[in-house]
Design a protein that fits this description.
Blueprint lengths: L1 H9 L5 H12 L9 H12 L4 H9 L6 E2 L3 H10 L5 E2 L1
Helix pairs in contact: 1-2, 2-3, 3-4
Length: 90
């Protein structure tokens, strides 16, 4: 999903909303099985609210943790703006 999102944005120039729609379509195919469908759904929702999909997927996959650490100042700020859980800190 992550690589597909990157190709759709970089190579095809799709905006975040279009990328989210395409990925939801792919996820809904009968022969596609996601490792963590809820994390992907959460990441797609965050993508539509302005968070980078890779960052959103990392956050969504970390929901069971107490927090997430990163050097990415933009991620810290955006996650805070979105009220993301878990908290993201440097």
């Amino acid at each position: 999903m992550l690589e597909t999102a990157w190709v759709l944005g970089y190579a095809y120039g799709l905006d975040d909303g279009a990328i989210a729609n395409v990925l939801r379509g792919v996820a809904g195919l009968p022969n596609v099985e996601l490792e963590d469908a809820q994390a992907v759904a959460d990441a797609l929702a965050a993508l539509e609210r302005g968070l980078d999909f890779a960052d959103a997927l990392h956050l969504a996959g970390s929901q069971h943790t107490e927090g997430m650490a990163t050097f990415d100042k933009k991620l810290i700020e955006r996650a805070s703006d979105l009220g993301s859980c878990p908290p993201v800190a440097p």
